[in-house]
Design a protein that fits this description.
Largest sheet of chain B: 9 strands, mixed
Strand content of chain A: 25-35%
Shape of chain B: globular
Distance between the termini of chain B: 59 Å
Order of helices and strands of chain B: EEEHEHEHEHEEEEHEHEEH
Shape of chain A: elongated
Oligomer: heterodimer
Number of helices of chain B: 7
CATH topology of chain B: Rossmann fold
Bound molecules: flavin-adenine dinucleotide, adenosine monophosphate
CATH class of chain B: Alpha Beta
Number of helices of chain A: 8
Number of strands of chain B: 13
Helix content of chain B: 25-40%
Distance between the termini of chain A: 56 Å
Strand content of chain B: 25-35%
CATH superfamily of the largest domain in chain A: HUPs
Structural class of chain A: alpha/beta
CATH topology of the largest domain in chain A: Rossmann fold
Radius of gyration of chain B: 22 Å
Number of strands of chain A: 16
Largest sheet of chain A: 7 strands, parallel
Helix content of chain A: 25-40%
Chain lengths: 324, 259
């Protein structure tokens, strides 16, 4: 059986990121799963065990002291090295993040591969990798297959969640030489604060978003309070981001994050087509807007024509009452 | 300094965008085609550098004949010249083809720096800049919310899913900018008049010495096999707040087991 390579993301503090589980589960569907780790030299026995528990049959570690200081290229080199080591790789799977896409893109050029971006599902049909994508904000489902070369695929975070059998993986460790690569240098990094205690927007089961109707940075607290009452992630429209109520990384929509939660609550959001493109595949959509003609109401399962500053405090209070 | 800006024409996001269910190709006839907002911003970054230093700014697109309109708009904004890669053989080109063709055209023009958008609103691939960089063997410095260009180096701040990085690279390099970068200027009346006289070159694949069969024959390619339109959402319950809607919402959430 041919192998399927996965690029394991590691945080700057050395922890394997959550996406590893999805990638290895997806790889298991396509071939013998290989975990590729691009990292600085050190003791990786803990990582190897963890990746084995997630189903990796082989762990390929490519080490370089420069891995943390160069942008994307160390991962490209690591995958390219693993690709030539395992000769028969049918597919390379990478997380669909800003960096993951670029790594996948550069790698595809390097190995003459075909590229599929942001797949939400993959299967093997007659030895060919078939990927499913959701395009134009979920208006269309598209299936595509890659032929004529190896398949390089980025997978949307949280798209595949299944259990696989644990293994005791084989370990291959190589040293990468990165002295002559064309790469940008990272001069400093600030990790996004993760201490909000809220779930990550991308994979959250519930998202509460605020728009221009929230009116100010201070009043955005109302959106956060409802989110916390529901254990939800916080999101925003571009108008709210542009007005400085909240950081860009929480923007939902066409040019922000695409979410597909069980429940999406839009507060003071009109429902512009570019916002809908980021959330219209949510299972249940709720909106509160004081304009009865707001386009968002064409998409809601439960719509309230009203002022968020009277409706939402009441909801939060009632939710607390239900709890006790 | 010679800056090439990669611009793209896309279906207006304000219209309903559609895919041809037989071929999976973008239905370019449906809504209006406009220059991608992110392309405008990319050009703005280049023009600001031109305003300061007199850099030469060339806009480049690969696209159907109608894409020339986007290039004229860029010339009116202030770009010095434009290049349009236009060839029937490129209909339905995927990212693999697009990136090699753009890289060939960039090499053909010569460059110190390339500026692109972080992702286009139609494809949302966000891969072309990095792929072009790989073809050209130069660093990519992408998803920048802020860009600083100096004589032989570019740096900026990069937004990723996990935080912000400050990054730097020697030129030549490829940069891509996010929608956090400044709004673009509007073409002036004078700019519109001047644009008519500025050079707009059209290049075919043979001008770039590309023969699709031999140049792309041995690379993988993604082809669409099926396209399904999702059923449209329908509106559900809609109530007008008469004093109790907040509680009704809480009850709706409790009934749906969201609490
Ligand atoms: C290329 C491009 C990409 C874009 N990408 C995105 C994107 O990724 N995400 C995105 O969101 N937008 C995006 N946009 C912008 C989009 O077109 C809209 O401008 C934006 O979504 C509007 O945000 P909003 O609904 O918060 O603001 P508005 O449209 O101004 O709506 C505010 C709403 O709040 C309501 N309201 C006001 N006060 C109250 C109150 N007290 N109680 C209840 N309701 C109240 C009003 O009735 C109104 O409906 C993009 C646009 C373009 C051109
Ligand atoms: N056909 C094209 N012609 C010129 N530039 C393009 C083309 N396709 C993509 N680009 C550039 O690459 C950026 C990102 O596009 P994408 O990778 O398609 O999301 C765009 O903002 C453009 O700068």
């Amino acid at each position: 059986m041919s192998t399927a390579l996965t690029l394991i993301e590691v945080s700057p503090s050395g922890e394997i990121r959550g996406s590893a589980k999805m990638l290895l589960a997806a790889a298991t569907r396509l071939g013998t799963p290989v975990a590729v780790l691009s990292t600085t030299p050190g003791d990786h026995s803990e990582h190897v065990k963890q990746l084995g528990d997630l189903g990796a049959h082989h762990v390929f570690i490519a080490e370089s002291t420069q891995t943390d200081s160069l942008l994307a290229t160390p991962a490209v080199e690591s995958l390219a090295a693993a690709f030539s080591h395992f000769e028969t790789s049918a597919a390379v799977l990478v997380t669909n993040s800003v960096e993951g896409r670029e790594i996948a893109g550069r790698l595809a050029v390097r190995i003459g591969g075909g590229l599929t971006i942001d797949a939400i599902d993959i299967t093997l049909v007659n030895d060919r990798v078939v990927a499913r994508n959701s395009v134009f904000g979920g208006a269309f489902d598209v299936e595509s297959s890659i032929h004529g070369g190896p398949a390089v695929i980025t997978l949307r975070q949280g798209s595949i969640d299944e259990e696989v059998t644990a293994h005791t993986p084989d370990l291959i460790t190589i040293t990468l030489s990165l002295t002559s690569v064309a790469a940008a240098t990272i001069t400093s990094r600030t990790e996004a604060p993760t201490d909000s205690g809220r779930p990550d927007l991308r994979g959250a089961a519930t998202v509460v978003s605020g728009g221009r109707g929230v009116g100010s940075k201070e009043d955005f607290l109302l959106v956060e309070q409802l989110a916390d009452a529901l254990g939800a992630a916080v999101g925003a429209s571009r108008a709210a981001v542009d007005a400085g109520y909240i950081t860009h990384s929480l923007q939902v929509g066409q040019t922000g994050t695409i979410v597909s939660p069980q429940l999406y609550i839009a507060l003071g959001i009109s429902g512009a087509i570019q916002h809908l493109a980021g959330m219209q595949t949510a299972k249940v959509i709720v909106a509160v807007n004081k304009d009865p003609d707001a386009p968002i109401f064409d998409f809601t399962d439960f719509g309230i024509v009203g002022d968020i500053f009277t409706v939402i405090p009441q909801t939060i209070e009632a939710l607390h009452r239900f709890r006790h | 300094m010679k800056i090439i800006v990669l611009v793209k024409q896309v279906p207006d996001t304000w219209g309903e965008r559609s895919l041809d269910s037989a071929t999976g190709a973008l239905d370019r006839s449906a809504p209006d085609n406009i220059i991608d907002e992110i392309s405008d911003r990319s050009l703005e970054v280049a023009l600001r550098h031109k305003d300061e230093t007199g850099a030469e700014v060339i806009v480049l697109t690969m696209g159907p004949a109608s894409a020339a309109v986007a290039l004229r708009h860029c010339l009116a904004m202030g770009a010095d010249s434009a290049v349009h890669v236009l060839d029937d053989a490129l209909a339905g080109a995927d990212v693999t083809w697009t990136s090699s063709v753009l890289a060939a055209a960039i090499t053909h023009e010569g460059f110190d720096m390339v500026i692109a958008g972080n992702e286009s609103t139609d494809g949302r691939g966000g891969v072309i800049p990095a792929m072009v960089a790989e073809h050209l063997s130069v660093p990519h410095l992408t998803s920048l919310s802020e860009v600083h260009i100096a004589v032989d180096v570019v740096n900026g701040s990069r937004e990723t899913d996990y935080g912000t990085l400050t990054v730097t690279a020697r030129l030549p390099a490829i940069v891509s900018v996010t929608e956090q970068s400044p709004d673009a200027r509007f073409p002036s009346f004078k700019g519109l008049l001047k644009a008519k006289k500025k050079p707009l070159a059209t290049l075919s694949l043979s001008d770039l010495s590309i023969n699709p069969e031999t140049s792309f024959g041995s690379t993988g390619r993604s082809t669409i096999t099926t396209v399904t339109r999702r059923p449209a959402r329908t509106a559900g319950i809609k109530i007008v707040d008469s004093g109790n809607a907040g509680v009704e919402l809480a009850e709706f959430l409790a009934a749906g087991r969201f609490v």
